[in-house]
């Protein structure tokens, strides 16, 4: 048993701010929401510059406020359910990221180009944390290896995602793990060593060997 694109509208566009009805405001928000993230970011920057120059401050302030609400709402909807560290790190770049092989403009970055950067950061930028985890697992191994039914333990590190590990533990039976080990005081000691390194609750699955291929 094994555990284991659209053109950017000019900032000179005039919006009828005075006397705008709620329907008109909603239409404006819908229009702003349909713009690509890159266009939203550039438009926001142009309105901020217009306010700094003192040009159309009333209109610019109003539209900028609506645009910020749209952007904040989009960010909330797109936020990952789990705080993936790579997404958190590169979140400020989201308005400038381009998917696939589409044409890029000055200031834009292909999303795929971020992966090598993340891999380097994990491999070279935080080696101490990786060493600490592996040292902690070495101590935890002494605990789990004494459990009844324990067979072997292997730790594999991701190649494409060096911040991810796969831990394979072999047990004589399913119950040796789920009942015997997990129900013993040794389980709490095991988790005390490696638990602090988990970003979230680890996924645990059980597998049986396939005859003739194991």
CA-atom Rg in angstroms: 26 Å
Question: Strand share of the residues?
Answer: 5-15%
Please tell me the overall pLDDT.
Answer: 75
The counted number of beta strands is 6
Outline the low-pLDDT stretches.
5-19, 74-82
> Can you name the CATH architecture of the largest domain?
2-Layer Sandwich
Strand order of the largest sheet: 1-6
What is the overall silhouette? elongated
Give the domain tally.
3
User: How widely separated are the two ends?
Assistant: 11 Å
Number of helical elements: 8
Secondary-structure element sequence? EHHHHEEHHEEHHE
Provide the CATH top-level class of the largest domain. Alpha Beta
CATH topology value of the largest domain: Alpha-Beta Plaits
Give the % helix.
40-55%
The major pleated sheet works out as:
2 strands, antiparallel
- Return the structural class: mainly alpha
Description:
- This protein has 214 residues and is mainly alpha-helical.
- It has eight helices and six strands; from the N terminus they run βααααββααββααβ.
- The chain folds into three domains: 63 residues, no CATH class; 44 residues, no CATH class; 81 residues, Alpha-Beta Plaits (2-Layer Sandwich), CATH 3.30.70.
- The protein is 50% helix and 11% strand.
- The protein has a two-stranded antiparallel sheet. Strands 2-3 form a two-stranded parallel sheet. It has a two-stranded antiparallel ribbon with strand order 4-5.
């Amino acid at each position: 048993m094994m555990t284991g694109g659209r053109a950017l509208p000019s900032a000179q566009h005039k919006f009828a701010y005075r006397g705008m009805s709620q329907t008109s405001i909603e239409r404006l928000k819908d229009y702003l929401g349909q713009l690509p993230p890159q266009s939203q970011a550039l438009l926001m920057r142009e309105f901020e510059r217009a306010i700094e120059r003192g040009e159309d401050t009333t209109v610019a302030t109003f539209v900028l406020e609506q645009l910020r609400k749209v952007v904040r709402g989009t960010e909330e909807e797109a936020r990952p359910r789990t705080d993936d560290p790579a997404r958190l790190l590169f979140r400020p770049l989201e308005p400038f990221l381009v998917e696939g092989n589409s044409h890029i403009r000055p200031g834009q970055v292909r999303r795929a180009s971020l992966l090598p950067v993340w891999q380097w950061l994990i491999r070279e930028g935080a080696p101490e944390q990786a060493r600490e985890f592996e040292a902690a697992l070495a101590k935890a191994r002494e605990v789990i290896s004494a459990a009844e039914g324990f067979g072997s333990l292997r730790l594999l590190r991701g190649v494409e995602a060096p911040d991810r590990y796969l831990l394979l533990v072999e047990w004589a039976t399913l119950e040796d793990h789920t009942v015997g080990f997990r129900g013993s005081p040794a389980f709490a000691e095991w988790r005390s060593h490696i638990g602090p390194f988990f970003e979230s609750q680890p996924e645990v699955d059980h597998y049986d060997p396939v005859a003739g291929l194991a």
